[in-house]
Design goal:
Elements (H helix, E strand, L loop, with lengths): L1 E10 L7 E8 L4 E5 L6 H9 L1 H4 L3 E9 L2 E2 L5 H5 L2 E4 L12 H11 L4 H15 L14 H14 L4 E5 L7 H17 L3 E5 L3 H5 L4 E6 L2 E7 H5 L2 H6 L6 H11 L11 H12 L2
Parallel strand pairs: 3-8, 3-9, 6-7, 7-8
Antiparallel strand pairs: 1-2, 1-4, 4-5, 9-10
């Protein structure tokens, strides 16, 4: 579905590359989490999939990025948007209309989706994002978290094969964040949608992603299953990445020789781990 081949990108007027020699493949239907410290190149990686790099942000481009058979240099953002839906870190950047309903309809109308189908998709997308009650609301009166959910609903309305998200829960409380990830999991399972997400809430993301990529200084440092990544917690801490407390607990128990199993990804799994250690 997505192939990075010896890909390096340096923004115009930047002193060093944002991404360096990226070689990676993402298969259809994968749920991939991307983590790393600030400035690691995570957002640039996402923007290289949807074509914002190099068509909006220009610079020196080496190697290739191919998305569903389309070279991202030869095909612009419009062509790629038929395959890739995007949710940016700041929802204000991508919301272009005044009302929630109109915002979701905007891209559907541009791609000539029939009116009856547009109405059905608006209803379904609002339900998936948990914001059915906001359908007639003025966007200007929404909170940051509500705007973030509108951006998610707009992106999934087109039913893209690939959905890239840059910290989509940054404006949301824990309940709202959980709902967004549950929505993504449903899209992944029911529609076989490929999900690629940059997220700081590693514990939440680790409950849903099966593959996790860590980035640092423009390089991919690790690319493995989520369970395997969590076992690299010491290295993650060195990189400035906050590890979930359940992972820190498992690592401490392992260091004390009390535990040697898979690292937990949820509180319930951590509770089972502790019961196994204490025998209670």
């Amino acid at each position: 579905m997505i192939t990075f081949n010896a890909y390096t990108f340096q923004y115009k007027d930047s002193e060093s590359p944002a991404l360096i020699d990226i070689n990676m493949q993402i298969k259809k239907g994968e749920f991939v989490g991307i983590i790393g410290p600030s400035g690691a190149g995570k957002s640039t990686l996402l923007m290289s999939i949807n074509g914002i790099v190099p068509h909006y942000y220009t610079g020196d481009f080496y190697g290739s990025v191919v998305v569903n058979g389309l070279d991202t240099v030869e095909n612009g953002c419009v062509a790629l948007s038929r395959h890739v839906g995007s949710v940016l870190q700041d929802p204000e950047v991508q919301i272009v209309t005044s009302y929630v309903e109109d915002e979701i309809a905007f891209s559907l109308e541009n791609f000539s989706v029939p009116p009856d189908e547009i109405d059905r998709r608006i209803t379904e997308s609002l339900e998936l994002a948990g914001i059915t009650h906001l359908r007639k609301r003025d966007v200007a009166g929404l909170s940051g978290g509500q705007k973030q959910r509108v951006a998610v609903a707009s992106a999934i309305a087109l039913r893209p094969e690939i959905l890239v998200l840059d910290e989509p829960t940054s404006e949301l409380d824990p309940l709202g964040s959980q709902m967004i990830f549950e929505t993504l999991a449903r899209l992944n399972k029911e529609y076989n949608m490929t999900i690629i997400i940059v997220e700081q809430k590693i514990m939440l993301m680790s409950q849903f992603s099966e593959r996790m990529i860590t980035m640092e200084d423009g390089h991919i440092r690790t690319d493995m299953t989520t369970v395997e990544t969590l076992r690299q917690s010491s290295r993650l801490i060195e990189m400035g990445i906050n590890c979930p407390r359940v992972v820190s607990l498992a690592r401490k128990l392992e260091e004390e020789g009390l535990y040697n199993g898979a690292y937990p990804r949820t509180v319930d799994e951590a509770a089972q781990m502790v019961k196994g250690v204490t025998g209670e």
